[in-house]
Amino acid sequence: MEDQVKTETVQVVDIQFRPGQKVYFFDPNGKQYAAGDHVIIDTARGPEFGFCTGGNHHISQKDVVSPLRPVLRKATAQDEKTMESNRETEKKAFKICMEKIQELGLDMQLVSAECAFDGSKILFFFTSDDRVDFRELVKNLAGCFHTRIELRQIGVRDKARMVGGLGICGSPFCCATFLDDFQPVSIKMAKTQNLSLNPTKISGTCGRLMCCLKYEEDHYEATRK
């Protein structure tokens, strides 16, 4: 039985990058962690600060999104200070970026500013209906913060995932809690489920068709088999 558990499941811990955001699985790397621990985790962007929401437990191998990155260690007192400093930098960066956008007359909506844990760069996420030439904005921001600046244009569904909130059902957005990616959603799904085709009834806060239409469609198809 023990061999079966090892081959069919994998041990993980539940980590959030920020409180209230989506939970991701990380490899505990042979160590024990508990809910409430603050940790340093390995990510595609380098080491980052994270919040443990669930200690060591096993999940099915098929539920793992590769690569399963490791928790590097528990956060130290210095790590906590660095995180708090980064959050202050993000607030300042967001405010300054908003001012620069207005000064340059750019048609873009700033969503968030995120500072890399090691301070090597600041990422600004924004939405816009068109392509935006933000080269001058990058130069201005680099002059203010003397670090690497990245601007990334995202869609309205990505914005909803980052900002979070409650849907018309009263529950947190699916995209901000458990969805790994955005699946195509069509009006046909609403028709199949005998829902009102009133856009205000079947659209999410992002203005697009609700992701749960796809979830309900898949559940319906599964029950028919």
Q: Your description of this structure?
A:
This protein is 34% helix and 25% strand. It has 7 helices and 8 strands. It has a 5-stranded antiparallel β-sheet with strand order 2-1-4-3-5. Strands 6-7-8 form a 3-stranded mixed β-sheet, sandwiched between helices. A hairpin with a 2-residue loop joins strand 3 (38-43) and strand 4 (46-60). Helix 2 (77-104) packs across helix 3 (135-145). It is flat and about 55 Å long.
Q: Beta-strand percentage? A: 25-35%
What is the overall pLDDT average? 86
Order of helices and strands: HEEEEEHEEHEHHHH
Query: Helical percent range?
Result: 25-40%
Largest sheet: 5 strands, antiparallel
From the spread of the alpha carbons, the general shape counts as flat
Give the helix/strand class: alpha+beta
Stretches where pLDDT is under 50 for at least 5 consecutive residues are none
Task: Describe this protein with a few key phrases.
single chain, 225 residues, alpha+beta, 5-stranded antiparallel sheet, 3-stranded mixed sheet, 7 helices, 8 strands, 34% helix, flat
